[in-house]
Amino acid sequence: MTKEIHVIRNVHTLVAFDRERDGHVYLRDADIAYDDKGFVHVGGHYDGPFDSESSGRDRMIMPGFVNVHCHSGEEPISKGIFEDMGTAALWGNALYEYSNLLEIDDDAIEASLTVMVGDLMRSGVTTLLDIAGPHESWLPTLARSGARAFVAPGFRQAQWYVEDSHRLDFRWHKARGREAFARALEVVDAAAAHPSGRLGGVVAPSQIETCSPELLQDAVTAARKRGIPVTIHAAQTMAEHEELLRRHGLTAVQYLESLGLLGKDLILGHCIFVDSHSWTRQRTEVDLRLLADRKTTVAHCPVTFSRSGMALESVGRYRRAGVNVALGTDSYPFNMLEEMRQAMICARLAGKSVFDVATGDILEAATIAGARALGRDDIGRIAVGSKADFLVVDLRHHAMQPIYDPLRNLLHCAAERAIERVYVDGTCVVSGGRPTLVDYDGALAKLQEAQDYACRKAPENDPRGRGMRTLAPLSLPTAVSAKA
Fold first, then answer.
1. pTM
2. Cβ–Cβ < 8 Å for 372, 326
3. What's the confidence (pLDDT) of residue 483?
4. Which of 119, 184, 365, 436 is most exposed, with minimal Cβ within 10 Å?
5. Does the pLDDT at position 1 exceed 50?
């Protein structure tokens, strides 16, 4: 059966992959041709057969972004609640005391996932890795969205418990964790076999400190037997860093190395507090060298952590050490371009130099590095033979004007507002800023009800029974309206 070939002609600026340079380059006034299997032409004038064509004038076409770390579940309903909160005794991090307070019911979880995927695609994401609890609507919703998605069903053996806002404890349920691991493998295998051809699986022991060494090793063994990636939250907080030192006398990276788990198929979520970070007490330079030598990926998600006053030190330093740094959005706002901008700003602040990382470096982290983390060389790039995953930027948008370097305009100024269309496997999944294959507006309408439910339930999940107005006071006091 002949595939339909679509041509976009005379693209003003095409961000193409140059194999000799092993990186992205600008091409001007270029043609691209693609079908549902991938790009068949990239560059000069295309004079082959085609079924339809359109103009690329006043447009920039870029590779779709690869997001290697995001969470659906209850994360989309957390917006606007805990941004000003934290536990002072745990270095100001809100993760341990506040992340388990919000629940999402089964009726809302599909809507929450739909909104997350819709927001990611609107910001140029064509491939995502979602770490969440498995549910019946997970694979069907992702498949229906048109996105290229890797599901990572989380499992762990210990639950966090914060006593009176000053001490982090762990409540272990090893058998339950093993059951969750078995269920996760079932979901991973189902994703790999999904008829859409756009879904895959990742083995995801949730946090390094909530899994026994035996479970971590068994998880990595199961992933490597299947030839799929592994992702683990590691070196993400100082509380975790100190806990691993207490248990093993090792940093997260060194602990994983001692277990034989570092490797090119491992993605470490966040990996901020390595031995050379200014907050730690090691003052050594071992961890980055290990990560680089083992070709392990760091999934950098700056927005969530910078909200709590924490930053990786720094993207430029990790890259210069040879570490593969890819990007994720972690939690809301699920906006990849905002994440890229924040990554650049945080790197320059942490590195104390505008030269720490360049705009092109951040694009590489959001595309090629993410593809490398997932073991793929056919996404995150526009090249003949690669998947037709790309985004179209309107260069006439006011935030893109005037144009000297369009990539800088997009990252530093316009962000997702200038994205006109997004394609996965040559199918348009976003047009005019709206997802085309899912009911985004309908899902969005359900989130307020879901958040209200979660806020009502929060006191039941808090060890001290605090209500939401105590847990998360409003930004401003509420005054009584004056009577007429």
1. 0.96
2. yes
3. 60
4. 436
5. no
